[in-house]
Design goal:
Elements (H helix, E strand, L loop, with lengths): L1 H4 L6 E8 L22 E8 L8 H17 L3 E4 L15 E3 L11 E3 L25 H12 L2 H12 L17
Antiparallel strand pairs: 1-2, 3-4, 3-5
Length: 181
């Protein structure tokens, strides 16, 4: 992973690892819109930036960060885990990255996935989908990112949006759309 990370030679690559656990795990996933709680070890933000070359080099750096993310997501040498005892507390894996420790012989069920299935709305990832620029966005379309950001809370949030903002005045590229009847 680190060799791939340092391939970004002309930009500044970052991985910010936010540790989870403790009190955050005591709050139910459904208590608040933010569901990423029990069983999540880390939230990882991947980014790159550059100062030279402007828009001419943007595609190179964006391509690199997408490639790096794909490597982490798909690599058989990396595993994603959650829950100290492997139980996960009923939560799905969530960007909780650890290097494969098969050499230690301690993989007694705690490694549950090599594919992150969720995302954090404040680390917006437009690659997982966006609202239509013109016209309504369907529930099915918005579920592509809404379920990753809000898990089972997405349905409840769509209902609230439909009641509070049926005209979809408050919106952005990945906002929750109102349900269309």
């Amino acid at each position: 992973m680190w060799e791939r990370f340092f391939e970004e030679d002309e930009g500044v690559a970052q991985m910010i690892w936010i540790h989870y656990g403790g009190k955050i795990s005591e709050i139910s996933e459904s208590a608040l819109p933010f569901p990423h709680r029990a069983g999540v070890l880390y939230k990882i933000q991947h980014s790159t930036s550059w100062t030279d070359g402007g828009n001419e080099v943007a595609s190179k750096h964006v391509s690199w960060i997408r490639s790096f993310y794909s490597y982490i997501r798909d690599s058989p040498d990396l595993l994603f885990t959650y829950g100290a005892d492997g139980s996960g507390g009923g939560a799905e894996p969530d960007h909780s990255l650890v290097e494969n420790s098969a050499a230690s012989g301690d993989d007694n069920g705690k490694y549950v996935s090599k594919s992150p299935r969720e995302a954090y709305i404040n680390y917006r990832d437009l690659d997982i989908g966006t609202n239509n620029v013109k016209g309504d966005t369907s529930y099915k379309q918005a579920s592509a990112w809404g379920k990753k950001y809000f898990k089972n809370n997405f349905d409840r949030l769509v209902h609230v949006k439909t009641v509070v903002d049926p005209g979809n005045f408050f919106r952005h590229e990945q906002s929750i759309p109102p349900f269309s009847f």
